[in-house]
Amino acid sequence: MIPVTEFRQFTEQQPAFRVLKPWWDVFTDYLSVAMLMIGVFGCTLQVMQDKIICLPKRVQPTQNHSSVSNVSQAVISTTPLPPPKPSPTNPTTVEMKGLKTDLDLQQYSFINQICYERALHWYAKYFPYLVLIHTLVFMVCSNFWFKFPGSSSKIEHFISILGKCFDSPWTTRALSEVSGEDSEEKDNRKSNMNRTNAIQSGPEGSLINSQSLKSIPEKFVVDKSTAGALDKKEGEQAKALFEKVKKFRLHVEEGDILYAMYVRQTVLKVIKFLIIIAYNSALVSEVQFTVDCDIDIQDMTGYKNFSCNHTMAHLFSKLSFCYLCFVSIYGLTCLYTLYWLFYRSLREYSFEYVRQETGIDDIPDVKNDFAFMLHMIDQYDPLYSKRFAVFLSEVSENKLKQLNLNNEWTPDKLRQKLQMNAHNRLELPLIMLSGLPDTVFEITELQSLKLEIIKNVMIPATIAQLDNLQELSLHQCSVKIHSAALSFLKENLKVLSVKFDDIRELPPWMYNLRNLEELYLVGSLSHDISKNVTLESLRDLKSLKILSIKSNISKIPQAVVDVSSHLQKMCIHNDGTKLVMLNNLKKMTNLTELELVRCDLERIPHAVFSLLSLQELDLKENNLKSIEEIMSFQHLRKLTVLKLWYNSITYIPEHIKKLTSLERLFFSHNKVEVLPSHLFLCNKIRYLDLSYNDIRFIPPEIGVLQSLHYFSITCNKVESLPDELYFCKKLKTLKIGKNSLSVLSPKIGNLLFLSYLDIKGNHFEVLPPELGDCRALKRAGLVVEDALFETLPSDVREQMKAE
């Protein structure tokens, strides 16, 4: 016989594909094997045994009945019958008698063959071959979607990812960490506890209790710290799996070729089943044991009527009925498959039961071929879908990232990055990480935390361990926060800095920080920001004292006005966008510092003159050309710092003398040519910066400024310095570089507190030895050409070089 294994190539697929074969496909595969055995058995009999045996028939004469036997013998035999042989002498011997045809073996073979071809019904001849062909077609149809190029690649990729997800150590750990104990374990533990309590209530409870504890499964006493261990390599493999699952999902959800292919092959099997049942039921009766063969071959054999025996008719008849039973069962199974395909929505798959069972609420539902394969997997084992779902969850992915992050950033490594920031706080900067390491919260001495370009930051409740934390900086980060962590920040956080590209990156929880004192916002906002709902919530920041907005606003937000009662410093850096409608400034009566930088202001806003508590005004990088309004500053009796630098101011009006409380004046990077003597009537000035202008002459009235500590006229056109300058004996910093000076007065020795002197870029030929009298001046604080420094006496040079 032909072994069945020879036909394995028609149905062979990878063993892993079995997970996509539901019970009905497995059942029909076994039915196909049974039908294949019927076909192979019938074909083997056809080859191994005689197909048909034929004998010639006598022709019945038309004479009367008295001479029927004699005449019939004469007709059948073409030659006269031989005379009867004499009876044997032995009475015990029986003579064998029969009809003789005088046909040889070749003639019988010829008759058998021609009767088989012409007289036997085609169904009786080809029944085993039909069974074999139909069965092979069934097998091909059942497994075609595993072989078709458009579908097999998706299936192979899916099976590969599925196996890795199922075997990944992260799957077990994620289910335990994200969802806690498995529900089955909970039920088992509960039943064990109930059973234990019931046993303990008995009279021999203590003894039986010790025995029952031994019967508890070992999984309930495994140390979680060792069971959930995940090394770095396993973590990286799990991370790669998450990326593969994402890409595979995007690719597979685009179409439904797998679903369509499976439906088509099932429909084809049903149609073929109906055809087989129809014609087999009609033709099975044609398989007969006796067949009459009437063919005109009398010239070759002497006969034309034959009676034939189909040797395998009885067996084929039984096999055909058995085959019809198998086909019927096969067809009914296919009909059930069609019902399953069309009754259920197989192009959509919901993980609702997984979400309920595991507690992972963010597992998304899937569609199209992805959904169909998961439905097929559920028919094999629903556990596959449950474990696969772990890699569709962002919560699970974030947990994995967090674990890898904690392994990479140990507390010791983080402590190496600690530094002091501009606010003199111990700061930890973290830039471009995949998340926020939990190990950060082990550094209890931390005062400031700076997070930059970190997506999906989750601030946990463990931030409460940072007792000294007062400052938080979020630069281009999307941050979520635990409720307990928010409570901690409400009480402890004093400074918050947020830099963003999109206003949606502003953390909504920042408006609840009731003890927040300083808020810095850097990013692009709407021009009509006053209507922005998010910033209107600033009114809840009752402790806010400093507000800095670096953006592109066109007017001061109403939200800022709402906190004006306690706001002390406001900074608006507007990136060149024109700031209009500044009347709201009048309401900020407690404002002590105001910065309006790059706001495209052409004049000093009149609303500023209403800020009677104002101490510092900065109008840097605007478009100011005239400051005649400066006379109104006389009402600002507390104004001590005035910054009008980086503008286009051409002159300083005489009214500046009315700013009697002025201590610091920044006038650099303008176009001033003449210094009015009235400027020096502001005798409280300690800091005067007139660098980068077109000044040619310094009035001698500068000697009135006895409190002057800092004086700079760098990069002007000054040709000489008045001797009165050296009356300013408290001067510590003097910058006169890049001018047209040719002589440095020996009176410079009167500046005993001078520690920084910039004279580089002038026309000096020698330096006065009196520089040695400036005991605080060292070589590092003297900015001068090396050749010019060598003109000093050697003892002066050595004095300056000495530490």
* CATH hierarchy: architecture of the domain at 624-802: Alpha-Beta Horseshoe
> What is the average per-residue confidence, as pLDDT, rounded to a whole number?
81
Query: Regarding CATH, which class of the domain at 624-802?
Result: Alpha Beta
Measured distance between first and last alpha carbons: 108 Å
Question: What fraction strand?
Answer: 5-15%
How helical, in percent, are the residues? 25-40%
Any low-confidence stretches, pLDDT <50, length ≥5? 62-82, 84-93, 179-228, 527-534
Please, how many helices?
A: 24
What class, by secondary structure content?
alpha/beta
Keywords: Cell membrane, Disulfide bond, Endoplasmic reticulum, Ion channel, Ion transport, Leucine-rich repeat, Membrane, Phosphoprotein, Repeat, Transmembrane, Transmembrane helix, Transport
Region (Disordered): 177-209
Membrane topology: Multi-pass membrane protein
Transmembrane segments: 30-48, 126-146, 315-342
